[in-house]
Design a protein that fits this description.
- β8 and β9 form a beta hairpin.
- The chain is globular and about 80 Å long.
- The N terminus is likely disordered.
- With about 475 residues, it is α/β, with parallel strands linked by helices.
- The chain folds into 2 domains: about 300 residues, Zn peptidases (Aminopeptidase); about 160 residues, Alpha-Beta Plaits, CATH 3.30.70.
- The chain is built from 15 helices and 20 strands.
- The longest helix has 18 residues.
- Bound molecules: zinc ion.
- The site of zinc ion has 5 residues, from loops.
Length: about 475
């Protein structure tokens, strides 16, 4: 009975939204996607400025005022576009910021079946570097703002779109740069970042609608021991390699404290409804007050679950010594940490010193922006625990039920990091949702023959048009 009703609902809903994307919009959104894919925006030889200028031209043609669409950046090749669709009245709520990166990961023609910098439509897919990560979403946002402008739509607040440089690599991260140099241009109530989150499908069928609403903090540390060295025929107890090796063994055995926040708690509550019996029971045990240590330990054996409930640190590089027949004068290891929201890198550095328990091993912080090594790590707690906002999530849930019926909306914490780390750190709570459906065994971001299902792309175009309207005061039809 329940199944029958669900099927009927799906049949009734499907044509309604599928038909709402008219032919001119499809053509426009495809043209923009093609233009973006065919502009090389890699760090090595590409330019985000060229892509930003092309999008600026389109927005101006749609009726945006010149002062509302700016291309700016730290140098000629790393331009960022900031466009503002003005709200109906100046005194409305604070703006919504959308951040999306224009740069893509390198791609070699010889590795690919098609030219990575040509948009190729084949067998129901768009192929090209950036189709998934993330020129698909860039094109969706530009299309949406153009449609709003052309139809004279006035949101209840400003909508700001920032298309930026150097998310994938390079040293001129556009979001960081804009926040530091032109905060007034991008200041907002909250941010949407379509670089993370999205719809996970299997053979095209939606399984889950994932919204990334928290991120771990990235930090690298250098562990180092030094020694005068000497002839290897005369070993002494005080060997730099042994110091670092022993410290790493202690690190391997150390476990950072278990901790949940609003996002991971909600995530496990949802997951417990669909997981296998043992996992579901353990998740409920973990969520109980007080939490069940045995349940935490069992779940902790799954890397993905473990990474969600604690800070993790792992050795990633090692180098030591200078000759086969000499005692090492120095030994060095790099430890990469992924820190739970609400904790600073310095807190973790101090904790590492305690865990390693060897004054001969120094623990210093390596800046991921500049590579600089410092005795102390930053004290700020950029990604404070997030509060889930119903004003952001409720309209998303309502629309997701129409677009991807039957797939639950789950909020999730990214164990990696996206540009949301900069907006979150700047006090702009950020939510990741691409609106693009990707099969779980077809994630090709950064890889060869990157592709996006054509229907998934057009659904994304349609979704964001409706979602941004729902967020900015337009009543549902
Ligand atoms: Zn990306």
């Amino acid at each position: 009975m329940k199944i029958a009703r669900f099927l009927i609902a799906a049949l009734l809903l499907a044509p309604a939204w599928a038909a709402s994307l008219d032919e001119p919009t499809r053509r426009l959104s495809r043209e923009i996607l093609q233009e973006l894919i065919e502009i090389n925006t890699t760090d090595s030889v590409g330019s985000t400025t060229v892509a930003a200028e092309a999008m600026r031209k389109r927005l101006l043609a749609a009726g945006f005022a010149a002062e509302d669409v700016t291309v700016l950046g730290p140098n000629e090749r790393k331009g960022n576009l900031v466009a503002r669709l003005r709200g109906a009245h100046a005194g409305g709520p604070k703006p919504i910021l959308i951040i999306a990166h224009l740069d893509v990961v390198e791609a070699r023609r010889s590795d690919w079946t098609t030219d990575p910098f040509r948009l190729v439509e084949q067998d129901g897919f768009f192929y090209g570097r950036g189709t998934q990560d993330m020129k698909g979403a860039d094109a969706i946002m530009v299309t949406t703002l153009m449609r709003f402008k052309r139809e004279g739509y006035r949101p209840d607040r400003d909508i700001i779109l920032a298309l930026t440089a150097d998310e994938e690599g390079g040293t001129f991260n556009g979001v960081d740069w804009l926040l530091k140099q032109h905060r007034d241009l991008v200041d907002a109530d909250f941010a949407l970042n379509p670089d993370s989150g999205g719809v996970t499908t299997q053979h095209g069928k939606a399984l889950a609608v994932e919204v990334a609403s928290a991120e771990k903090l990235y930090a690298d540390f250098e562990l180092k021991a030094t020694n005068p060295g000497g002839h290897s025929s005369l070993p002494v107890a005080d060997n730099a390699i042994y110091h670092v090796a022993d410290a790493l063994v202690r690190l391997e055995r150390a476990v950072f404290p278990f901790e949940l926040n609003a996002v991971t708690r909600a995530y496990f509550e949802n997951l417990a409804k669909v997981e296998s019996e043992q996992n579901a029971a353990d998740m409920r045990g973990m969520l109980a007050q007080p939490p069940d240590p045995a349940a935490i330990a069992r779940l902790g054996r799954v890397a993905q679950f473990n990474a969600l409930v604690r800070t993790t640190c792992v050795a990633t590089r090692l180098d030591a010594g200078h000759a086969n027949n000499a005692l090492p004068q120095s030994a060095r290891a790099i430890v990469n940490c992924r820190i739970l929201p609400g904790h600073s890198a310095e807190e973790v550095r101090v904790e590492l010193v305690r865990i390693l328990a060897d004054p001969a091993v120094s623990v210093r912080h390596i800046s991921d922006l500049t590579g600089e090594i410092a005795d102390r790590a930053p004290l700020d707690k950029p990604s404070a625990p997030v509060t889930l906002r119903t004003d952001v999530l409720a309209p998303l849930e309502r629309l997701a039920a129409q677009f991807w019926p039957g797939a639950p909306v789950v909020t999730d914490m990214e164990t990696g990091a996206s540009d949301s780390k900069y907006t979150n750190a700047a006090g702009i709570p950020s939510f990741g949702f691409s609106a693009l459906a990707i099969d779980r065994d077809d994630v090709r971001a950064h890889g060869k023959d990157e592709r996006l299902r054509v229907s998934s792309y057009y659904d994304g175009v349609d979704f964001y048009y409706q979602y941004l309207k729902a967020l900015t005061g337009a009543t549902a039809n």
